[in-house]
Design brief:
Shape: elongated
CATH class: Alpha Beta
Number of helices: 6
Largest sheet: 5 strands, antiparallel
Length: 159
């Protein structure tokens, strides 16, 4: 795998692409995961946790994962890349340019993610890298989640 220093902006920019890389590992989103997320966040909306009511009343005819649960699973899904950013001291989540929940993730569905580099730019305190990540239910062409993530790579602290 190619290694690119976090501060080599020009080299990082060569990886910017309209094309997504391959999908990473698959993960089943179980009803138990959804229930635990509801307990953790306090979001017990019936469309997520009430299986019987969802069968009767939901347009999806079953419970669905919280959008933010799907978002929180991105690190576990590990989208595949042909390069690795190296040489930084730490990396911090800097936010999002875009976040959309475009299709449901039904309980019991398997999901996977792929990504593409959107941009890299020098900042006063490091390098900001923008990556678009899409999470799909296996077999669905339409993504369930579209996330444009900003990460700030900081240089190592001087001892």
């Amino acid at each position: 795998m190619e290694q690119i220093r976090f501060d080599d902006i020009e080299k990082l920019k060569t990886k910017v692409s309209d094309q997504f890389g391959p999908f990473g590992s698959e993960l089943e989103v179980t009803q138990e995961m959804i229930n635990k997320f509801a307990d953790l966040t306090g979001d017990h909306q019936w469309i997520h946790v009430d299986v019987e009511r969802a069968k009767r009343e939901s347009p999806f005819k079953q419970t669905i994962a919280h959008g933010f649960l799907t978002l929180s699973l991105i690190p576990k899904l590990r989208a595949i890349s042909d390069y690795q950013i190296v040489g930084f001291g730490n990396a911090t989540n800097y936010g999002a340019n875009k976040l959309r929940f475009t299709a449901p993730v039904p309980a019991g569905a398997k999901i996977h993610a792929h990504s593409r580099l959107v941009g890299a730019e020098a900042k006063a305190n490091g390098t900001q890298v923008t990556t678009e990540i899409q999470v799909h239910v296996l077999g669905n062409a339409r993504p369930s989640l579209i996330y444009e993530m900003l990460v700030l790579y900081h240089p190592a602290a001087k001892g």
